[in-house]
UniProtKB/TrEMBL annotation:
<comment type="function">
    <text>Key component of the proton channel; it plays a direct role in the translocation of protons across the membrane.</text>
</comment>
<keyword id="KW-0375">Hydrogen ion transport</keyword>
<dbReference type="InterPro" id="IPR045082">
    <property type="entry name" value="ATP_syn_F0_a_bact/chloroplast"/>
</dbReference>
<feature type="transmembrane region" description="Helical">
    <location>
        <begin position="226"/>
        <end position="247"/>
    </location>
</feature>
<dbReference type="InterPro" id="IPR023011">
    <property type="entry name" value="ATP_synth_F0_asu_AS"/>
</dbReference>
<comment type="similarity">
    <text>Belongs to the ATPase A chain family.</text>
</comment>
<feature type="transmembrane region" description="Helical">
    <location>
        <begin position="100"/>
        <end position="118"/>
    </location>
</feature>
<dbReference type="InterPro" id="IPR035908">
    <property type="entry name" value="F0_ATP_A_sf"/>
</dbReference>
<dbReference type="Pfam" id="PF00119">
    <property type="entry name" value="ATP-synt_A"/>
</dbReference>
<dbReference type="InterPro" id="IPR000568">
    <property type="entry name" value="ATP_synth_F0_asu"/>
</dbReference>
<keyword id="KW-0138">CF(0)</keyword>
<feature type="transmembrane region" description="Helical">
    <location>
        <begin position="40"/>
        <end position="61"/>
    </location>
</feature>
<keyword id="KW-0472">Membrane</keyword>
<keyword id="KW-0066">ATP synthesis</keyword>
<feature type="transmembrane region" description="Helical">
    <location>
        <begin position="253"/>
        <end position="276"/>
    </location>
</feature>
<keyword id="KW-0406">Ion transport</keyword>
<keyword id="KW-1133">Transmembrane helix</keyword>
Length: 284
């Protein structure tokens, strides 16, 4: 997120905590939310991720409805460029991909890119707006929380990575068969004489795929979000406000590389993992 105006909350620690707290259902104010708690729903994560998914669907429908090969619009050219870029990655990494891989890779890339790009909104814009709306209904604005960037939440990144992991298992069974998939755990990588070691090593290898996918995206986006908040804290001092503008602008420029790069890496690793899952035993 870009740098903000003077924060409304007086304490720097309270300011950061407020911006890193989700709008949640199923948890009392001030109660610490567990890392894994299926009784708590993060409404802001669901809201923004679904809004962005709906935006993708709308523009895809709009472009598909008005396709013109003879006189393409500028927006159509942009969409075609993105589609060709993703298709080229799929062809290079997964030459024998079926019809699902291309649309899946495109959806992942665009959706993750848009969720990451929410980080470019000013840190206080939407939370302050949410606080104002809450105040109209009698709520304390300091107790109205809104976390804008879905990918700064583990539930978003692990939801995506676990979905990819489910597809990895599906493609393994589809191309190797259930018996072949089980044999991969038993005999890979050290042969039949070290089956217990093979099972442990292969299980770790498989589990590391969704864990690394989810943590990499979360870690990079959360760190970027936190750094924007630290820069915004400079507004607590009038003398530091010029430094806030300079540092905020510099980090925003750097973050413009991080945002698409993380979306690209997530998409690329998804294609790689599904390509590996589609290889038969002799190629594994």
């Amino acid at each position: 997120m870009s740098e903000s105006n003077a924060p409304a909350i007086s304490s720097p620690v309270e300011y950061i905590q407020h911006h890193l707290t989700n709008w949640s259902v199923g948890v009392e104010h001030g109660e610490q939310v567990k890392i894994i708690d299926f009784s708590v729903l993060h409404v802001d994560v669901l809201l923004f991720s679904m809004l962005l998914a709906g935006l993708i669907a709308f523009f895809a429908w709009k472009v598909g409805k008005s396709l013109n090969a003879d006189k393409p619009t500028g927006f159509q050219n942009v969409i075609e460029t993105i589609v060709e870029f993703v298709n080229q990655q799929v062809k290079d990494i997964f030459p024998n991909a079926d019809s699902l891989i291309g649309p899946l890779a495109l959806t992942i890339f665009v959706w993750v890119l848009l969720m990451n790009a929410m980080d470019f909104l000013p840190v206080d814009l939407l939370p302050s707006l949410a606080g104002g709306i809450g105040a109209l209904f009698g709520a304390d604005p300091h107790h109205v929380y809104l976390k804008v960037v879905p990918t700064t939440n583990l539930d978003t990144t692990f939801g995506l990575s676990l979905s990819v992991f489910a597809l990895i298992i599906f493609y393994n069974i589809k191309h190797k068969g259930l018996v072949g998939y089980i044999k991969q755990f038993l005999f890979h990588p050290f042969g039949p004489y070290l089956m217990p070691v093979n099972i442990v090593m292969t299980a770790i290898e498989e589990i590391a795929k969704p864990v690394s996918l989810g943590l990499r995206l979360f870690g990079n986006m959360f760190a970027g979000e936190l750094l924007f908040l630290l820069i915004a804290l400079l507004a607590f001092s009038v003398w530091a406000m010029p430094a806030q503008v300079i540092l905020g602008s510099m980090w925003a420029v750097f973050h413009m590389l991080v945002v698409p790069l993380q979306a690209f890496i997530f998409m690329l690793l998804t294609i790689v993992y599904l390509g590996l899952a589609s290889q038969h035993d002799e190629h594994h």
